[in-house]
Amino acid sequence: MLAFFLLVCFGLSGCSAEGLKTTGYIPVTHVVDGDTIDVKLNGEEETVRLLLVDTPETVHPQKPIQPFGPKAHRFMVELLKGEKVKLEIGEDPRGKYDRLLAYVYTEDGEMVNELLLRKGLARVAYVYPPDTKYVEEFRAIEEKARKNNRGIWSIEGYVTDHGFERTEQCRIKGNINSDGEHIYHVPGDPYYEETKAEAYFCTKKAAQAAGFRAPHY
Protein backbone atom coordinates (compact mmCIF):
# COMPACT_ATOMS: atom_id res chain seq x y z
CA MET A 1 0.00 0.00 0.00
CA LEU A 2 2.86 2.38 0.85
CA ALA A 3 4.58 1.60 -2.46
CA PHE A 4 1.34 2.41 -4.30
CA PHE A 5 1.01 5.69 -2.39
CA LEU A 6 4.58 6.66 -3.19
CA LEU A 7 4.07 5.88 -6.88
CA VAL A 8 0.93 7.99 -7.02
CA CYS A 9 2.47 10.75 -4.92
CA PHE A 10 5.60 11.09 -7.03
CA GLY A 11 3.44 11.30 -10.12
CA LEU A 12 1.66 14.37 -8.78
CA SER A 13 3.55 17.66 -8.63
CA GLY A 14 1.35 19.04 -5.86
CA CYS A 15 1.38 16.02 -3.57
CA SER A 16 2.12 16.98 0.04
CA ALA A 17 4.88 15.44 2.14
CA GLU A 18 2.38 15.03 4.98
CA GLY A 19 1.38 11.37 5.27
CA LEU A 20 4.60 10.25 3.58
CA LYS A 21 6.78 7.98 5.73
CA THR A 22 9.70 7.49 3.35
CA THR A 23 10.66 8.89 -0.01
CA GLY A 24 12.54 7.47 -2.94
CA TYR A 25 15.98 8.91 -3.63
CA ILE A 26 15.57 12.62 -4.34
CA PRO A 27 18.17 15.27 -5.28
CA VAL A 28 19.92 17.49 -2.75
CA THR A 29 19.78 21.05 -4.10
CA HIS A 30 21.69 22.85 -1.34
CA VAL A 31 23.48 22.20 1.93
CA VAL A 32 22.38 24.93 4.33
CA ASP A 33 24.59 23.93 7.26
CA GLY A 34 25.62 20.87 9.21
CA ASP A 35 22.11 19.70 10.09
CA THR A 36 19.92 21.27 7.39
CA ILE A 37 19.65 20.61 3.65
CA ASP A 38 17.36 21.55 0.77
CA VAL A 39 15.94 18.84 -1.49
CA LYS A 40 13.64 18.64 -4.49
CA LEU A 41 10.52 16.70 -3.52
CA ASN A 42 7.51 16.34 -5.80
CA GLY A 43 8.72 19.21 -7.96
CA GLU A 44 9.04 21.57 -4.99
CA GLU A 45 12.09 22.59 -2.98
CA GLU A 46 11.83 21.54 0.65
CA THR A 47 14.11 22.36 3.56
CA VAL A 48 14.93 19.31 5.66
CA ARG A 49 16.09 19.46 9.28
CA LEU A 50 17.85 16.29 10.46
CA LEU A 51 16.04 14.73 13.39
CA LEU A 52 17.58 14.35 16.86
CA VAL A 53 20.91 16.01 16.06
CA ASP A 54 22.34 19.50 16.37
CA THR A 55 25.56 20.83 14.83
CA PRO A 56 27.35 24.08 15.72
CA GLU A 57 26.06 27.19 13.98
CA THR A 58 27.42 28.65 10.76
CA VAL A 59 24.46 30.66 9.40
CA HIS A 60 22.43 31.68 12.46
CA PRO A 61 21.49 35.38 12.14
CA GLN A 62 22.02 36.06 15.85
CA LYS A 63 24.96 33.78 16.66
CA PRO A 64 28.60 33.79 15.55
CA ILE A 65 30.14 30.89 13.67
CA GLN A 66 30.82 28.24 16.29
CA PRO A 67 33.79 25.86 16.51
CA PHE A 68 33.34 22.78 14.30
CA GLY A 69 30.36 24.38 12.59
CA PRO A 70 32.32 25.02 9.37
CA LYS A 71 33.75 21.49 9.54
CA ALA A 72 30.26 19.98 9.89
CA HIS A 73 29.05 22.09 6.97
CA ARG A 74 32.02 21.11 4.83
CA PHE A 75 31.48 17.42 5.66
CA MET A 76 27.86 17.68 4.52
CA VAL A 77 28.82 19.46 1.30
CA GLU A 78 31.44 16.82 0.46
CA LEU A 79 28.99 14.02 1.30
CA LEU A 80 25.83 15.33 -0.35
CA LYS A 81 26.58 17.95 -3.01
CA GLY A 82 25.12 16.76 -6.31
CA GLU A 83 23.88 13.56 -4.65
CA LYS A 84 20.50 12.03 -3.91
CA VAL A 85 19.14 11.08 -0.52
CA LYS A 86 16.23 9.15 0.90
CA LEU A 87 14.15 10.63 3.72
CA GLU A 88 12.54 8.79 6.59
CA ILE A 89 10.13 11.49 7.69
CA GLY A 90 9.28 11.93 11.36
CA GLU A 91 5.98 11.12 12.99
CA ASP A 92 5.54 14.87 13.38
CA PRO A 93 6.63 15.76 9.83
CA ARG A 94 7.26 19.50 10.26
CA GLY A 95 8.86 21.67 12.90
CA LYS A 96 7.88 25.16 13.95
CA TYR A 97 9.84 26.66 11.03
CA ASP A 98 7.85 24.51 8.54
CA ARG A 99 10.90 22.41 7.68
CA LEU A 100 10.56 18.69 7.07
CA LEU A 101 11.96 16.68 9.98
CA ALA A 102 13.67 13.50 8.85
CA TYR A 103 16.37 10.89 9.08
CA VAL A 104 18.45 11.24 5.92
CA TYR A 105 20.09 8.34 4.07
CA THR A 106 22.78 8.38 1.39
CA GLU A 107 22.54 6.17 -1.68
CA ASP A 108 25.01 3.85 0.09
CA GLY A 109 22.40 3.34 2.79
CA GLU A 110 24.25 5.27 5.51
CA MET A 111 22.20 7.47 7.82
CA VAL A 112 23.62 10.99 7.77
CA ASN A 113 22.33 11.76 11.28
CA GLU A 114 24.47 8.90 12.61
CA LEU A 115 27.54 9.88 10.58
CA LEU A 116 27.54 13.37 12.12
CA LEU A 117 27.39 11.89 15.62
CA ARG A 118 30.15 9.35 14.89
CA LYS A 119 32.52 12.05 13.68
CA GLY A 120 31.87 14.25 16.70
CA LEU A 121 30.26 16.95 14.58
CA ALA A 122 26.86 16.88 16.28
CA ARG A 123 25.21 16.30 19.63
CA VAL A 124 21.94 14.50 20.33
CA ALA A 125 19.31 17.20 20.76
CA TYR A 126 15.68 18.23 20.31
CA VAL A 127 14.33 14.93 21.58
CA TYR A 128 10.59 15.39 21.44
CA PRO A 129 8.04 12.54 21.38
CA PRO A 130 6.79 10.97 19.21
CA ASP A 131 10.06 11.35 17.23
CA THR A 132 12.38 9.32 19.44
CA LYS A 133 12.75 6.21 17.27
CA TYR A 134 16.57 6.12 17.17
CA VAL A 135 17.40 8.15 20.26
CA GLU A 136 18.95 5.28 22.24
CA GLU A 137 21.20 4.29 19.33
CA PHE A 138 22.14 7.93 18.83
CA ARG A 139 23.04 8.40 22.49
CA ALA A 140 25.31 5.34 22.37
CA ILE A 141 27.09 6.72 19.29
CA GLU A 142 27.40 10.15 20.92
CA GLU A 143 28.89 8.65 24.08
CA LYS A 144 31.54 6.81 22.07
CA ALA A 145 32.49 10.04 20.26
CA ARG A 146 32.63 11.86 23.61
CA LYS A 147 34.89 9.25 25.19
CA ASN A 148 37.24 9.51 22.20
CA ASN A 149 37.27 13.34 22.32
CA ARG A 150 36.16 13.59 18.71
CA GLY A 151 35.27 16.95 17.20
CA ILE A 152 33.01 18.99 19.44
CA TRP A 153 33.95 16.80 22.40
CA SER A 154 37.60 17.86 22.17
CA ILE A 155 36.75 21.24 23.74
CA GLU A 156 36.10 20.98 27.46
CA GLY A 157 32.79 22.56 28.44
CA TYR A 158 31.82 23.37 24.86
CA VAL A 159 28.84 21.00 24.55
CA THR A 160 25.98 21.65 26.98
CA ASP A 161 22.39 20.52 27.34
CA HIS A 162 21.36 23.80 25.75
CA GLY A 163 23.75 23.90 22.81
CA PHE A 164 27.34 25.01 22.33
CA GLU A 165 29.10 27.52 24.57
CA ARG A 166 32.37 29.36 24.17
CA THR A 167 34.76 28.58 27.00
CA GLU A 168 37.41 30.93 28.31
CA GLN A 169 40.15 28.51 27.23
CA CYS A 170 39.16 29.03 23.59
CA ARG A 171 40.45 32.53 22.92
CA ILE A 172 41.57 32.38 19.30
CA LYS A 173 39.19 34.54 17.31
CA GLY A 174 38.01 33.57 13.85
CA ASN A 175 36.93 36.49 11.70
CA ILE A 176 35.53 36.74 8.15
CA ASN A 177 36.67 40.00 6.58
CA SER A 178 34.92 42.10 3.94
CA ASP A 179 36.61 40.09 1.18
CA GLY A 180 35.24 36.85 2.59
CA GLU A 181 38.64 35.69 3.87
CA HIS A 182 38.60 33.50 6.99
CA ILE A 183 41.37 34.73 9.32
CA TYR A 184 42.20 33.78 12.90
CA HIS A 185 43.78 36.07 15.51
CA VAL A 186 45.50 34.91 18.67
CA PRO A 187 45.78 36.95 21.89
CA GLY A 188 48.64 39.42 21.50
CA ASP A 189 48.11 39.97 17.77
CA PRO A 190 48.05 43.71 16.83
CA TYR A 191 44.32 43.72 16.05
CA TYR A 192 43.17 41.02 18.44
CA GLU A 193 41.16 43.21 20.81
CA GLU A 194 39.17 45.03 18.10
CA THR A 195 38.60 41.91 16.03
CA LYS A 196 34.98 40.78 15.93
CA ALA A 197 34.89 37.06 16.68
CA GLU A 198 32.63 35.05 14.42
CA ALA A 199 34.09 31.84 15.83
CA TYR A 200 36.34 30.88 18.74
CA PHE A 201 38.99 28.18 18.68
CA CYS A 202 41.19 26.58 21.33
CA THR A 203 44.15 25.93 19.03
CA LYS A 204 45.58 27.19 15.76
CA LYS A 205 45.19 23.69 14.39
CA ALA A 206 41.44 23.77 15.10
CA ALA A 207 41.14 27.18 13.43
CA GLN A 208 43.02 25.94 10.37
CA ALA A 209 40.87 22.81 10.20
CA ALA A 210 37.82 25.07 10.08
CA GLY A 211 39.26 26.95 7.10
CA PHE A 212 40.79 30.00 8.84
CA ARG A 213 44.34 31.21 8.14
CA ALA A 214 46.82 33.31 10.09
CA PRO A 215 46.83 37.06 9.39
CA HIS A 216 49.41 38.66 7.12
CA TYR A 217 51.08 41.57 8.91
Features:
5 helices, 5-stranded mixed β-barrel
Describe the protein in words:
This protein has helices at 2-10, 69-80, 112-118, 135-147, 204-209; strands at residues 26-33, 36-41, 44-50, 53-54, 84-94, 100-105, 123-124, 159-160, 163-164, 172-176, 182-185, 199-201. The longest helix has 13 residues, at 135-147. It has 217 residues and is α+β, with helices and mostly antiparallel strands. Helix 3 (112-118) runs parallel beside helix 4. The radius of gyration is 19 Å and the shape is globular. It contains five helices and twelve strands. The strands form four sheets. Strands 1-2-3-6-5 form a five-stranded mixed β-barrel. A hairpin with a 2-residue loop joins strand 1 (26-33) and strand 2. Helix content is 22%, strand content 27%.
- Shape from CA axes? globular
Instruction: State the assembly state of the protein chains.
Output: single chain
Order of helices and strands: HEEEEHEEHEHEEEEEH
Mean pLDDT: 86
Terminal Cα separation, in Å?
A: 66 Å
Number of strands: 12
Question: Helices, strands, pairings?
Answer:
Layout (H helix, E strand, L loop, with lengths): L1 H9 L15 E8 L2 E6 L2 E7 L2 E2 L14 H12 L3 E11 L5 E6 L6 H7 L4 E2 L10 H13 L11 E2 L2 E2 L7 E5 L5 E4 L13 E3 L2 H6 L8
Parallel strand pairs: 3-6
Antiparallel strand pairs: 1-2, 1-5, 2-3, 4-7, 5-6, 8-9, 10-11, 10-12
